[in-house]
Write a structure and sequence with these properties.
Elements (H helix, E strand, L loop, with lengths): L2 H42 L2 H34 L2 H35 L6 H30 L4 E4 L2 E4 L2 H5 L4 H29 L5 H35 L1 H8 L12 E8 L4 E8 L2 H6 L21 H31 L6 H9 L3 H17 L2 E3 L3 E2 L9 H32 L42
Helix pairs in contact: 1-2, 1-4, 1-6, 1-13, 2-3, 2-7, 2-13, 3-4, 4-6, 6-7, 6-11, 6-12, 7-8, 7-10, 8-10, 8-12, 10-12
């Protein structure tokens, strides 16, 4: 298997998974956000929460539909492009993904119709229960996906028989050493990505003079989320880094661009630089003495592992993950700054009319998704050259396709994905620009007041963003 074929297979999977991961992240966050909104509506009977629920449920429906489609395509690639991996580790990854379908997907699918179309057809308590089940389903899905992926990073609870992995202890497989850290880190990342998406939409409407109670409420809730959760993510990320240092030291060395410990003493933190894989050094570096050891060892004397301690063929590509990690951390720190600024402006009574801050939040809208993508590139490229860390190399996992086949299918993926999901993103933005509508601002549905036409698919819950025909007067 030549290198060109391997690189094309990796590039194709990276392309499809990068598109896919954006949708589950927003789905996870919006599902929980909708549950909070409906809970507040039932408790306080304030119409603003009901209006926000119906607005964001439409965006959730579109996002959910695109996530399902992109996830199916990605799953098929395990058999088409990575048959070696499926043959080697399928007895573990296959059941874990099956558990995800049998629990999370069935839970979501079973209650999704009630959540999206049952507002006028079932009682308030049952509808709220359906919303909670969908929210729990998204988190259960995260649990199983992260269990499978984390096992690939820190495999345990298995035996190797006749060249294949056989599960020996399912609890050890699922609760592998990196799983708890990665589960919490990913879940918080999804909540932050959603918070800044919601916050940016609120900022966009406020900048255009639409200072309604619904817009102010969703903007305020997003800023509270940023203030409270972004610092927690920093602490979780530190714990995750310590866990990675213990189980994947080569990844940490590559992230830090740290090549050798010949001089002894503590390790500095390289702020910026250019890790050169050929010259085995980080060029043009700007570093802070001792800080690397302080962050990663919580010590001022102990050094961290260096890349030269590992064979050249076992080193991750430091040039890439050095920068993706810094992009992720930089955006995370900026999120904390935004949260603190929102607290100060809230105290000053200027949260909704400080145009520089609103512009900042608007530009920060994609930051959660960008940070999430940067984090995934860091953790997945940092695992290389292993597909199952320490057990199977990536070059042994790829299917025996030719470079021409992979080139053609990659080009087809690029064209189809940018066409289909480009339209989907444009539709989502149209929905966001429409903004939340009050019950008085909606036209009656074709079936009469208080009724909705029968929907055939989840995407139909979004309706037409230029002609909102839903009526949402339950309980008013």
């Amino acid at each position: 298997m030549n290198l060109e074929t391997l690189d094309l297979a990796r590039l194709q999977f990276a392309f499809t998974v990068s598109f896919h991961i954006l949708f589950p992240a927003i789905t996870i966050g919006l599902a929980s956000y909708l549950a909070v909104l409906e809970g507040l509506w039932l408790r306080r009977k304030e119409e603003v929460y009901r209006d926000l629920y119906h607005f964001w449920s439409k965006i959730f429906a579109v996002n959910f539909g695109m996530g399902v489609v992109s996830g199916l395509v990605m799953a098929y690639q395990f058999g088409t492009n990575w048959s070696g991996f499926s043959a080697f580790a399928g007895s573990i990854t296959g059941p874990l993904l099956t558990y995800e379908v049998l629990t999370a997907f069935f839970l979501e699918a079973g209650f999704l119709g009630v959540m999206l179309f049952g507002w006028h057809k079932v009682g308030p308590g049952l509808h709220f229960f359906a919303t909670l089940m969908v929210a729990i389903g998204t988190l259960v899905s995260t649990f199983w996906i992260l269990a499978s992926n984390s096992w690939m990073h820190t495999p345990q609870g298995h035996e190797i028989v006749d060249g294949r992995v056989i599960p020996a202890d399912w609890l050890a497989v699922i609760f592998n050493p990196s799983f708890p850290y990665r589960l919490v880190h990913m879940s918080i990342a999804a909540f932050l990505a959603t918070a800044f998406f919601v916050g940016a939409s609120g900022a966009w409407h406020l900048l255009r003079g639409r200072n309604t109670p619904a817009v102010r409420t969703m903007f305020s809730m997003a800023m509270w989320m940023a203030l409270l959760v972004a610092p927690v993510q920093l602490l979780v990320g530190d714990a995750h880094g310590l866990n990675t240092l213990q189980h994947q030291p080569a990844k940490i060395a590559a992230i830090e661009g740290h090549w050798d410990n010949a001089e002894g003493g503590p390790t500095p933190l390289i702020l910026v630089g250019w890790p050169d894989m050929q010259r085995e050094e980080t060029r043009f570096k700007v570093e802070v003495p001792v800080l690397g050891s302080l962050i990663l060892r919580h010590s001022t004397t102990e050094a961290i592992p260096a890349l030269k301690e590992f064979a050249a063929q076992d080193r991750p590509n430091s040039t890439v993950i050095f920068w993706t990690f810094r992009l992720m951390v930089g955006l995370g720190l900026l999120m904390i700054v935004v949260g603190l600024c929102s607290l100060w402006l809230r105290w000053r009574g200027r949260l909704y009319d400080s145009r520089p801050f609103l512009h900042l939040v608007l530009w920060m809208g994609p930051s959660g998704l960008v940070a999430l993508l940067a984090g995934w590139v860091t953790t997945e490229m940092g695992r290389q050259p292993w597909v199952v860390y320490g057990l199977m190399r990536t070059r042994d996992a790829v299917a025996p396709h030719g470079a021409a086949q992979l080139t053609l299918t990659l080009l087809l993926f690029v064209v189809v994905y940018f066409t289909v999901f480009g339209v989907g993103f444009a539709y989502l933005l149209r929905l966001v620009r429409k903004g939340p509508q009050t019950a008085e601002g909606r036209a009656p549905a074709q079936g009469g007041a208080g009724q909705q036409s029968t929907a055939a698919r989840p995407l139909s819950a979004a309706g037409d963003p230029d002609n909102d025909t839903s009526t949402d007067n339950r309980g008013s």
